[in-house]
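Thread: pyridoxal-5'-phosphate complex, take 2
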Amino acid sequence: MPIHGLSSQHQTSNTHPTHFDIEKVIRPNILSLLPYRCARDDYQSGILLDANENALGHVLKPDRGSANDYLHSFSSLDLNRYPDPTQLEIKSRIANLRNLKSEHVFLGVGSDEVIDLLIRICCVPAKEKLLITPPTYGMYAVCAHVNDVGIVKVPLVNRGGKQFQVDIEAIQQTIKSDPFIKLILLCSPGNPTGTLIPLSDIRKLLEDTNFKGILVVDEAYIDFADPYSNYDSDSAVSAVCLIKEYSNICVMQTLSKSFGLAAIRLGIALAQPPLIQILSNTKAPYNISTPSSLLALEALSPPSIMSMRQKVKTLITGRGELITEFERLAKLGLGLGQPLGGNDANFVLIPVTERGGEKPCCERSIKVYEELAERRGVVVRYRGDQVGCDGCLRITVGTSEENKILIKQLEDVLRMI
Ligand SMILES: Cc1ncc(COP(=O)(O)O)c(C=O)c1O
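Output below.
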């Protein structure tokens, strides 16, 4: 069955690996879906009386009442018109940034929408499943539950002296014995582990003939990864370089982290054109709002990309300084362990231990977490209930000033509790 909207060139293109057939992975109702079409798909200019918009314009009047600068800029936009459903310019800039073509790019309302869409297009509720590797990002399980899709867990393991490695053999055993697993969701660098997944591990899963589904690699934090920290022989850290080769990979990225634009909700899926076309056919027609798309376009301009790189550099320096400070506190015997994981994201995962001891202590960690938030004005994330994260706090790298306050308050609290 041809995929609606996919050019004939891509319908027939050769795919690798040969054991992957997208038509067997995508739910039949999605494959046969006739996407929503509007007159604006064909005609974008003229007297626009096709979409039941408000012909008199929007109601925002920044000159009246609470006039803010941002309202002035927004009110000059055609906010009474539905946004562009295709967002080709943003896709082209993302493709440029990541060395792909626009046809490899899909845009969602944050990666969270992409996760939900991938589950919806692949997994039949109450029958098919996704595989996750705890400890990992919580939304995978939430989206699976919302969609009544089963979750299979293969925890990360310590291997070769490195923490939080993907247990490739266990995943391969699991997919062999359970043909209902349609999606594998990996996170690299992981949340909350900060650990990069070697591309050689990802390749093993993509090549595994027992796995007929799609491997999703969530790279929300990839720009914070040190390009030389990968212990593969090739120096690439991002799985994006596998997209042209493999039709069964989908890489997710986002403007929420390195670009500092969590508020505009712009998530990205990168994959071969058939999967991108199916995602586009399934999404709500106008998912990216006009204000968000304008801000995203600006964020993807050369000066803003330079600014992103500068911010990433500053945050990586801050991450190093935080780690040094945590090590100092640990040496003072205040009950803090060594940071866990790879430290390749914009946070550090650190165990709170028994006072004067080395054993992680969840009870004390919760007390530290609550004291910091309730009386010291510093909010971090308690992750001590996650597999392999006993007693851990996940602490986002802040500004230099915020980091200093955090360290001061944490030291005080550790001396007290
Ligand atoms: C691993 C991971 N993926 C995705 C997201 C969500 O990204 P977005 O803001 O694009 O929805 C987060 C947010 O914390 C995350 O940690």
